[in-house]
């Protein structure tokens, strides 16, 4: 785990607490230190550091070696790694905003049991949706659509994905086989643009758009896939660039990357 240090707040509602935590963080990262070293490290007045060290010693968080005159932390401050469940809660908020904004279903998938499984789904409040997949829905990576393309573009075990009996919907909503060279071309395109969308509309009248969510502590590791299931109006069957841009921004936010506004 990474060592933690308090982030300065202006105005600080509890400066003594902030300074005490900063001293404890310095002892956690630097090890046993003298009073003078802590004053130099924190930049706080010597009298304040001495008073706070005394309080920390009294509560058992710090101890002082009478021989060396050095202070040591008896507890360690570390930054907790965000759990998958925490990210799911954050994703739910983002998905709710997207769903209400565009009036379509948002879905969240993770790699489980050799395929992709939906672990979260948010529907718009006032629109009837036709996307039938529910939480727990499993995709075996043989249908080549946006989810599969994102997985094959960024998953560290993408080479283990099926390479035979692959198919996709055609413009007449019939399942058609797809050749490996065509698949490879689509994967390269997905990797280049950072997202994927279904090239055709499925029998339920739905086109999915998908973006990767990366592990916040390892930007090379695919954590999950964020998807929007658009109910396509027959009069406007073209891919929606506003959905693409908003979904891409959401993926960057959930990955802990800077949010880039698209024009």
Write out key terms for the chains shown:
elongated; Beta-Lactamase; 3-stranded antiparallel sheet; Arc Repressor Mutant, subunit A; 13 strands; 263 residues
Task: Briefly characterize the structure.
By secondary structure, this protein is α+β, with helices and mostly antiparallel strands. The chain has helices at residues 15-30, 35-42, 46-58, 84-102, 146-154, 180-193, 241-254; strands spanning 2-3, 33-34, 62-65, 70-73, 78-79, 105-112, 115-122, 138-139, 167-169, 175-177, 196-197, 206-215, 218-231. The radius of gyration is 26 Å and the shape is elongated.
What can you see in these coordinates?
- The protein has 263 residues and is an alpha+beta fold.
- It has two domains: 2-79, Winged helix-like DNA-binding domain superfamily/Winged helix DNA-binding domain (Arc Repressor Mutant, subunit A, Orthogonal Bundle), CATH 1.10.10.10; 84-254, GAF domain (Beta-Lactamase, 2-Layer Sandwich), CATH 3.30.450.40.
- 35% of the residues lie in helices and 24% in strands.
- It has helices at 15-30, 35-42, 46-58, 84-102, 146-154, 180-193, 241-254, and strands at residues 2-3, 33-34, 62-65, 70-73, 78-79, 105-112, 115-122, 138-139, 167-169, 175-177, 196-197, 206-215, 218-231.
- The chain has a six-stranded antiparallel β-sheet, with helices on both faces. A three-stranded antiparallel β-sheet has the order 2-4-3. Strands 1-5 form a two-stranded antiparallel sheet.
- The model is unreliable at 259-263 (pLDDT under 50).
